[in-house]
Amino acid sequence: MKSAPLDQVQLIERSLRCFACGIIGILPGIGLPFAIVALGECLRVSLRKGAQLNPAERYLHWGALGATAGLLLTIVLAAALAIKLSWIR
Predict the structure, then answer these.
(1) Most buried residue, 4, 6, 31, 70, by CB count within 10 Å?
(2) Which residues contact 47 (CB under 8 A, 6 or more apart)?
(3) Residues with Cβ within 8 Å of residue 66, at least 6 apart in sequence
């Protein structure tokens, strides 16, 4: 089932929400929920954009990039912590 495309205002608002959450999502650990929200907004905008031009497309991409970087940083730090704790035993 295909959803209706977003109107221009919703498109811009969701792109800016993705950017704001993506910037906070860069923080390892605490930014994890924000990164997930940012990637969800990015996916939602990408799927429901339709043929419209998104004036906030840059913000959408930078938000997704920040969220992805935050997720990867969290995974790397969690793996490093797990390795460090395994050496202690």
Answers:
(1) 70
(2) 3
(3) 19, 22, 23, 25, 26, 35, 38
Q: Where are the alpha helices (DSSP H) in 1-89?
A: 8-25, 32-48, 57-88
Residues 39-51: tens digit of each pLDDT:
999 999 988 887 8
Q: Which of 12, 19, 6 is nearest to 49 (CA)?
A: 6
Q: Are 3 and 47 in contact (CB under 8 A)?
A: yes
- Helical axes 57-88 vs 32-48, angle rounded to 10°: 140
Task: Name residue, tokens 């035993």.
Answer: 89
User: Residue 64: CA atoms inside 13 Å, Cβ hemisphere, count?
Assistant: 15
Say if residues 18 and 65 touch (Cβ distance below 8 Å). no
